[in-house]
Amino acid sequence: MLIVFVIGITSWMNTARSDVLGIKEREFVTAACSIGTRKSRIIFRHILPNILSPIMVSASLGIANAIITQSTLSFLGLGFPPDFPNWGRLLYDGANFIQITTSRVIWPGLFIALTVISGNYIGGLLRDALDPRLRGR
Questions:
Q1: What is the CB neighbour count within 10 angstroms for residue 119?
Q2: Burial class (CB within 10 angstroms; exposed 0-12, middle 13-18, buried 19+) of 124
Q3: 103-132 pLDDT, tens per residue?
Q4: What is the dihedral sign for C-alpha 15, 21, 27, 31?
Q5: Cβ contacts of residue 103 below 8 Å, gap of 6+?
Q6: pLDDT by residue (tens digit) across 79-101?
Q7: CA 110 to chain centre
Q8: How far is CA 72 from CA 7, 12, 45, 58, 109, in A?
Q9: How does DSSP classify residue 47?
Q10: In this predicted structure, what is the pLDDT of residue 73?
C-alpha cells in the first residue's frame, strides 16, 4: 500500500509543479512582481489558489485509483495478510459461493464502486468550490 501512495504522491507533485510553472508566467503574477509584492504574498494570493483545484481533482482520482488497486491486490491475495478484512478479500471469499449466494459478491463490489464514485464526486465539488475562476459566478 505504501508503493501505491508513493506513486500517487509523485503524480500530485508533478501536477502541482507543472501548474506552478504555468501560472508564474501569467500576467497577473508578472504585474504583482513588477509593483514589488513580496514573494510569499504572490505565492499565497495568486499561485496557491490557482493550483488548488487541479490538485484536488488529481488527488480525488488518485484516491479512487488507490482504492481500486488495493482491492485488486487484496483480491489476488497480494499486499495484506489473508485474515485482514477488506473489500477485495470479501470479493475473493465470495467468488467461491457466487452460485449459492450472489450477495456475497454484489455487496463488496457495489461498495467499492460507490466509494470510488463518491470520491470522484467530492473531488469535483471541491474543484468547483476552490476554483478562483468560478467564484464570481
A1: 19
A2: middle
A3: 888 999 999 999 999 988 988 888 888 776
A4: positive
A5: none
A6: 777 777 888 888 888 888 888 88
A7: 20
A8: 16, 22, 41, 21, 11
A9: I
A10: 87
